[in-house]
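USER: Study each token:
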Amino acid sequence: ETLRLQSAITQLQQEQVNSFRTDKVQHKAKTQRFLEDICVKKDANDAFMAIALYILHECRLLGGSGNNSSVGGGGRNSPMNTTNGGGASESSQKETLAALESVFPKAHMDRFIAQRDNEKVVQLEEIWRIVWGIRLYNKETGKGGEDMPDLLRLTERDLADLIVRAEDLRSQMEHHAKMYAAVLRSPSIKLTTAQKRRVHDEYHHVLQVLVYSRSLLETLTAVQAKVTEMRPKWNAAMQDAKNLVEGSEANPVPKVTVYSKFIFITERWDSVFGLAREVKDATELLDVISESAASDAVASTLRPTDSQNALASLAEDKPPNKRLLESEIASLPSSVDKTLEYLPNHPTVEQTGAPRNINFEFNGFCIVSFVDSNLLLDGKNELRPSDAATSPGYIYLHANSAHYSFYNDRALRAFARDPFKYLSQSLMQLVQAAPVTVYLLGLHPYLSKEVYLAGTRKVEVTATVEKGEMSTQTGQIAAYKDTHYVWNEWELRRLALQLAALRNKRTHSTQTNLSHFRRENETQAYPPKEQQTQTLLDAAIQPPRVRQYIKGLRGTESSEIDVVKKTFQY
């Protein structure tokens, strides 16, 4: 049952990561398709309705749009069940259209359609934040949004209930763990080998549930701190928007100033949406842990009398002398003293006094008791009210920069004297004997991703014989090889006739103006001769040319023979 619980938690955590990644990618893909559809719209009414659908999609109000439509605990009033069955309600659509009309009237759609696509995308990303901020503001002021859940209030409510459940489970498991440890440590209670193995299995399951509940409580505490910090910011954003809107009735305020407040409200809502998803994931984990803790397969087999006698026989833990412990550790050999550091108090408070999370090795269990007696005991942590007075302190090992907690001061002294004795092969042998302790001690990150059990993987190795033929070179190998050597007599005769015929061959060619294959006519140039000379006076110097001819030699009736004389200057 412990291995089943470990497998279920690991698988669920991976599924949650994959689901978050898938929802994010699908939402972006749907958003891109909405934007592309809006950019190609040419009709004003069609573009306006497409913008309204895009806003509903960005607000996670459209079912099947790649959003996790029920990111809350799964109930009807869940803080993330905003789709009400897979789609936006009629009232939600009407309020969205009204808010969009007030921000971006239909009369301006023609100018929007004429813009470039990148300008449209930038404007749409701003419009949906403004419209959703207006709807959230109307919900806060009671002017609409009746079907919208109060996301922050429901998250606070679910988170408070979840913390109470986790604390109850943790306190219950701590009591059971103390009872099992007392029985296993008691020398007066005799158990058979089978009974002892069964009690060990039940004890390991209780410890695993305890580890998961503590880890979940740390997560929920961090989420609660974020939600607590978000509440005054949310109220302040709403109050600023309210003061600005109410003041604008008497003194008009530019829309840019008012819209920035609505965008700020939407950004706060987006942060709350992420916190609500974390609460939803924690709820699923707690359900699996609680179901495993209540399983009949790990029902306690301890006799009530044995449990009561074992608890009554436990010696009362006395507060350790931390000054004595510190002096003893300081007197250790220098080779040991330089490898570790004794911390009397819990290392959660720095010099500034601000607490910080410290992850102890082996999930806070005492590794000394596990190696010496094969029994896991919970290390004392002074931040727990039950361990505040009996905590022996902590060891910080410089070799791996890790903190260790211990069950008592004797275990701390033993670890300080030889820390690597408890971090050697003996620890690995105990872990191999009890595989459930791998996750219980937090050693799974150090294991290989592939594990082969002995005897489950068999490889048969067979010898193969291959036969082949070869010849040995017995003669001398010439250094020069004539690659054109021909041994065929007919081929030699053909080459001889070819060479003899070439002696009577002669090539004739004639160069003409039409021989384009002989020259490139495109690249040949014939520059004209110079007809003028540059002097102080640019003028022609050629003598005049005189031409004369006889006119009227055809001998017509009206013709007369005449001499025509013509003078050409240039």
Residues 65-86, 349-355 have pLDDT under 50 and may be disordered. The longest helix spans residues 193-248.
